[in-house]
Design goal:
The chain is mainly alpha-helical and 94 residues long. The chain is built from five helices and no strands. The longest helix is centred in the middle third of the chain and has 10 residues. The chain is globular, with a radius of gyration of 18 Å.
């Protein structure tokens, strides 16, 4: 006799996006935070630095593996360095 038991799991909780309500990035267009390759991210990072939602934004980007644009004041490469395991960071020279 075969047992056809179905296990129900709760859906994953939606990420908390309330930080976006007061985020300064809402006042600028997406091209500001997703510049063309080789373009400067300085202005976007400056705006992020003045934003009260910066830490939540960065946390969201890291948790959701955002690979493009400036999030929480960091570029793709900068976020990639944060994601890299500690042992790999120690092996890389200055």
């Amino acid at each position: 006799m075969q047992n056809n038991t179905t296990v129900m799991t709760a859906p994953a909780a939606a990420p908390d996006m309330s930080w976006q309500e007061n985020a300064l990035c809402a006042e600028a267009g997406p091209e500001f935070f997703f510049p063309a390759p080789g373009s400067s991210t300085r202005e976007a990072k400056q705006l992020c630095g003045a934003c009260e939602g910066r830490e939540a934004c960065l946390q969201y980007a890291l948790e959701n593996d955002e690979r493009f644009g400036v999030w929480g004041g960091l570029s793709e490469k900068e976020r990639g360095r944060l994601r890299r395991p500690e042992s790999a960071r120690r092996r890389v020279g200055p």
